[in-house]
Amino acid sequence: MAKSHSAGKSTVSAPSIHPRWTESVQYVKGVGPKRAESLNELGIETMADLLMHLPRRYLDRSDMVPIAKLVPEQHVTVVGKVGMTGMLRGRMSRFEVVISDGTGELTLLWFKGWRYLEKVLKKGALIAVSGQVRYYHGLQMTHPDFEVLEDWEAGNLTHTGRIVPVYPSGAEWSRAGLTPRSMRRLIKPLVTDPDSFTDYLPSSIRDAEELPSLPWTLTNAHYPNEISDAERARDRLAFDEFFFLELTLARRRLLIDKKDEGRACDSSGHLARQLVDGLPFTLTPAQKRVIKEITGDIRSTRPMRRLLQGDVGAGKTVVAAATMALWVESGAQTALMVPTEILAEQHLHTLTRLFEPCGIQPVLMTGSIKGAERRERLEMIANGTARVIIGTHALISEGTEFHDLGMVIIDEQHRFGVAERQRIVNKGTRPDLLVMTATPIPRTLALTLYGDLDVSVLNQKPPQKGTIRTVWRTEDARDKIYAYINDAAGRGELAYIVYPLVEVSEKSDLKAATTAFKELEQRFPNRNVGLVHGRVKPRDRQAVMNDFYAGNLHILVATTVIEVGVDAPAARLMVIENAERFGLSQLHQLRGRIGRGPGESICVLMIGHGPTPIARERVEAMCQTDDGFKIAEEDLRLRGPGEFLGTRQSGLPEFTIAHLVRDAHLVEPARQAAFHILETDPDLKHPDHKLLRSEWKRRYGQRQRLLQAG
Ligand code: ADP
Ligand code: MG
Predict the structure, then answer these.
(1) For the domain 270-458, what is the CATH superfamily, name and number?
(2) How far apart are CA 99 and CA 117, in angstroms?
(3) Considering every ligand atom, which ligand is closest to the CA of 592?
(4) Which ligand 1 atom lies nearest to the CA of residue 411?
(5) Does residue 444 surpass a pLDDT of 80?
(6) Helix 227-259 vs helix 214-222: crossing angle, to nearest 10
(7) What is the 287 CA–ligand 2 centroid distance (Å)?
(8) In the chain, at which end, N or C, are there fewer CB atoms within 10 A of the end residue's CB?
(9) Cβ atoms 93, 52 nearer than 8 A
């Protein structure tokens, strides 16, 4: 693959986006080695980077007004000749310049930067100035932006007299001497010659999406004639960002399909039917549809790479079990990998019941299974006696070998990274992969993060046994709430009291839960209070949970370890402390622990005094809806994608222009365009796709490994 041209050597023979597109910014006029270094530090290495560095906002300075028509407080641009200039020393030393345009006079004031101003603002110079007009002993402008007009003609202005770009200008920018003014000077000459650019997007895509051309886009992103043009240009570049990401995901998917000729499972399905017939309920239509979608994958040679999304309580476990049964019947193994031991134990419990009619005994494998027992289970997994295996990270550890892994299911997928996903897949010979998430992810985000997966959605919950009412309260209500818990315990209703466990301060939060536990024990002398958190030994934790399930404990103080997999139908109450510190989706998960029995359950969100408007808006959202997808959308909107996904999620690509919430509508078309183009030209070998390919490489080159990964 051709390297970028070295300076000066570019020839016409090789079409390029721009002869210097991928060259160091150093070769951009006005940069030089020193400034290039500063720009590099700020993430701008090439000319392309510089042009993709868009203005933060624009100033509309297109309103040019003769001095006689000026009205105080207006923001305007005035063109005039420099008359008198001079320093006025005193308490408020200043440099003053008077300009006139034949209709009147305007005084310009500067309280700093004199030396430079004295040099450039010479008597007789024609200048354009932009700023706010004030009236104080005559018309004035203080610290206007200005520009000396050497060969002035309208349209040739950079800092004044037009819509002017304002580039980001934090401390690190100004320290490097990269003021918005100097950025303008660097970028303007590049984009005023649109003919030097050739679009990397094929016209077929541009036409279909009604996108403007790259040359137009670059000019208008920086120097628009109308603000709406700038927006259109920005949209095009946001589309491009999504498009190249989706292209990468599409390519990855394509490679999986090509490289890994999967196995087609040819079992009769009688085991799965047996399992479903043994259920004490009938499947929801959504469950039936999703089982069908998954079965289709399992029966085909195309290896399954599917994401199953479903709200808490949507009934994903049954779906998982029924599809596992297909593989089990054919003699292969299936593994269910989950992030925590509590969840693993819970799933073992459920799957043991579900597989009972089939005569299959699921096997658990976690880090805390030790010694002879561990050896025995590893042996069962290695020799194929264990057919349904449930486990934590222990499943991907070195010591765990499978006999014949037909399918892998990962629950709570967002807790695992791509590498872990890959490691469990590598434990088998091209097994099917189903990843499940109970934290609904808005579709746009799902397509961005998991664009290489097919998506099934369980968009319907089984008929609810109970209902949940959610309210929020402040400290004042604490006594009343405790009194309620006490009464409820007398009626046999159990309560959770949840404390946040935020990763950054895990220790202090743990202390909060432990301290609260001691206080609550005193507060409820006639009730049994239990405590679980991540540091409680698995065996002790299971004992506490069993006590709670059995009703021997009335109140369970917990951290978010109970977020998933805990099922105590008698629990009718949940108090979540410092609710403002949880994400909405996490609150929703926690809340899903109640309402599992008949009747009304109550979830109380405790928030601090004087909640911020955002905190309030968030808890309000929780009180208003029980739809996990709506909550996820809201959460994404309020907190943005980074926070929404949390620190564990490392897979989120960084967009410099696109914004996952604001530009959500562009994701789907970008994805379609990307998948479509690879369908017709999988290696982008067609001559029309040459520039597309090189731009893709520029953007994702260092991540080429991604393209090889399964
Ligand atoms: P999640 O999608 O959160 O993992 P689960 O699989 O744990 O949900 O199911 C939640 C509860 O709903 C379980 O108690 C399960 O037995 C029950 N359930 C699942 N499917 C149905 C159904 N079709 N009808 C009634 N109850 C169901
Ligand atoms: Mg589940």
Answers:
(1) P-loop containing nucleotide triphosphate hydrolases (3.40.50.300)
(2) 14
(3) 1
(4) 4
(5) no
(6) 130
(7) 13
(8) N
(9) no
Which residue puts its alpha carbon closest to atom 24 of ligand 1? 462
DSSP state of 213: P
pLDDT at residue 432 tops 80: yes
Name 376's Cβ contacts closer than 8 Å, sequence gap at least 6: none
The answer, yes or no, to whether any atom of ligand 1 lies below 6 A from the CB of 313, is: yes
Both tokens of 413, joined, read 């997928």
Q: Which two tokens stand for residue 252?
A: 């990855």
Closest Cα to atom 19, ligand 1: which residue? 315
Residue intervals in the chain for CATH 3.40.50.300: 270-458, 467-626
What residues pair up with 127 in beta bridges, in sequence order? 80, 148
Span 126-185, pLDDT tens digits: 888 989 999 988 899 999 988 887 755 555 778 877 888 988 877 888 777 888 888 998
Q: What token pair was written down for 70?
A: 């000026």
- Written out in words, the top-level CATH class of the domain with range 467-626 is alpha beta
Residue among 308, 318, 347 to mutate when testing ligand 1 (max atoms within 8 A of CB): 318
Residue nearest to ligand 1 atom 10, measured at CA: 313
Tokens 């040099």, located at residue: 119
Phi-psi region of 599 (alpha: psi -120 to 50; beta: other; left: phi over 0): left
The three state secondary structure string of 37-85 is HHHHHCCCCEHHHHHCCCCCEEEECCCECCHHHCCCCCEEEEEEEEEEE
Full DSSP string of 665-710:
HHHHHHHHHHHHHHHH-TT--SGGGHHHHHHHHHHHGGGHHHHH--
**Residue 404 to residue 334: CA distance in whole angstroms:** 8
All CATH 2.40.50.140 domain ranges of the chain, comma separated, are 62-161
Question: Residue 579 in contact with residue 607, Cβ under 8 Å?
Answer: yes
Q: What is the mean pLDDT of the chain?
A: 86
Nearest ligand 1 atom to alpha carbon 567 = 14
Beta strands in 89-135 (DSSP E): 94-100, 105-110, 126-132, 134-135
